[in-house]
Design a protein that fits this description.
It is a single chain. The protein has two domains: about 5-55, RecR Domain 1 (Helicase, Ruva Protein, domain 3, Orthogonal Bundle), CATH 1.10.8; about 75-209, 3-Layer(aba) Sandwich (Dna Topoisomerase Vi A Subunit, Chain: A, domain 2). About 40% of the residues lie in helices and about 10% in strands. The chain has eight helices and seven strands; from the N terminus they run H-H-H-E-E-E-H-E-H-E-H-E-H-E-H. The protein has helices at about 5-15, 25-35, 40-55, 90-100, 125-135, 150-160, 190-195, 200-209; strands spanning about 55, 65, 80-85, 105, 140, 170-175, 200. The chain has a five-stranded mixed sheet with strand order 4-3-5-6-7. Strand 3, helix 4 and strand 4 form a beta-alpha-beta unit. The longest helix has 17 residues, at about 40-55.
């Protein structure tokens, strides 16, 4: 693809680094920005830059936040006895969009995948165990994508929780409405809401496998 300007070419190159953006789409976005007033384009770039530099990660659950503690963890109206464990920020957003869950979250930051070099030490597991030791959590919901790596992570976490003598915590998993191999972020909100509402004891989940 030939460009009349090196500046346009560089901008297109940056947009193509975004997931799902090819050169044609990137060029269309760049040309769109060129047709906008300079102040609007500047506001766009400033907003993105500020988001990247000023965004925080909740010190409790690792969710994205504008403050040290996110709005979910600091909300006294949430059920602080139920903790939903998810793989990434996208699952927090997906579950929140169902408006059917009112407990807390814990973002692992991935799943255990030895083939990709991701072990338990690379995930937010120690902070999870610290939260559970507080004694305020009575139920843990494993809302992790039902993949091979997801199941490995659920099995590992369940063993860790069962080894905590001071914690009598009920472990549940999202119901089978989410098919094996599916990523939670792509599951429709109704199915996801029902899967959380009809969650099952973890032992039943393993038998179902």
């Amino acid at each position: 693809m030939n460009f009349p300007s090196k500046l346009v070419e560089d901008a297109v190159g940056e947009f193509t680094k975004l997931p799902g953006i090819g050169k044609k789409t990137a060029l269309r976005l760049v040309l769109h920005l060129l047709n906008k007033p300079v102040d609007e384009t500047q506001k766009f770039s400033d907003t993105v830059a500020k988001m990247r530099t000023d965004i925080k990660f909740c010190q409790t659950c690792h969710n994205i936040s504008d403050h040290d503690i996110c709005s979910i963890c600091s909300n006294p109206l949430r059920d602080h006895s139920v903790l939903c464990i998810v793989e990434s920020l996208r699952e927090v957003m997906a579950i929140e969009n169902t408006q059917q869950y009112h407990g807390l979250f814990h973002v692992l930051g991935g799943v255990i995948s030895p083939i990709d070099g991701v072990g338990p030490e690379q995930l937010n597991i120690e902070s999870l165990l610290t939260r559970l030791k507080s004694g305020t959590i009575t139920e843990v919901i494993m809302a992790i994508s039902p993949t091979m790596e997801g199941d490995t992570t659920i099995f590992y976490l369940s063993n860790k929780i069962h080894q905590m003598p001071q914690a009598k915590i009920k472990i549940t998993s999202i119901a089978r409405g989410v098919a094996f191999g599916n990523e939670l972020e792509y599951v429709d909100e109704l199915t996801l809401a029902r899967s959380i509402a009809t969650r099952m004891p973890y032992e039943n989940y393993m038998v179902g496998r």
